[in-house]
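From the shared-data thread, chain only:
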Amino acid sequence: MDKVRGKRPAAVAAPRLSPVELPGLEDSPVVAIQHAGRHDNVRFSRIDGDGLELGGTVFSECLFEGASFNEAQLRGASFRDSILGELYAPVFRGARSTWREVEFRNPRLGSAELYESGWQSVRIDGGKVDFLNLRGAKLTDVLISGCIINELDLGAATATRVKLEDCTIGSLDLAGATLKDFDLRGTEFRKISGLGSLSGLVIDEYQLGLLAPLIAAHLGVTVL
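Structure, as tokens:
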């Protein structure tokens, strides 16, 4: 009689990321960012973009060494092959924006309105976000590490090869989300909503213990 062999756990696909390299940048005066347009191969140092109308602006191969964009309008803006260091905005308005091959380093954001945005090959390293609104967004190859997020809204989002590593999440909304290789292992969370949309979520045994009562309640199961 053949021995019954246990199935090996399915492999989890990690985000596919490459470091952003920015050689030969030109320094830009603050006035250069006052109006919407296009910026290529530019270093922005300690710029004040508060309240600016920058909808549809394209930033390609740019380095931000400290930037304040509080209440700036970045709806439909595009950031490509860029690094944003110490991004600051109590209110960050970037709905339907595009982020491709981008690194956020130690951002400090209050309400980050990034719903219906597109993220591809994006890394967030450190920092704190009070409310990260990614409702309806499309995320592919995203790594968020060492970040504190009080409220993360991924309702109706599509997330593929996304990993949250050593993060602290207050509440996570996955209602209506489509997930594939969404790796939450090693991240602390207090509350998850949208329990009907957990397919594609990867968790560890400890996190399963935290979720078990919520899943039982969702299914109408009484545990005595």
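Helices lie at 205-219.
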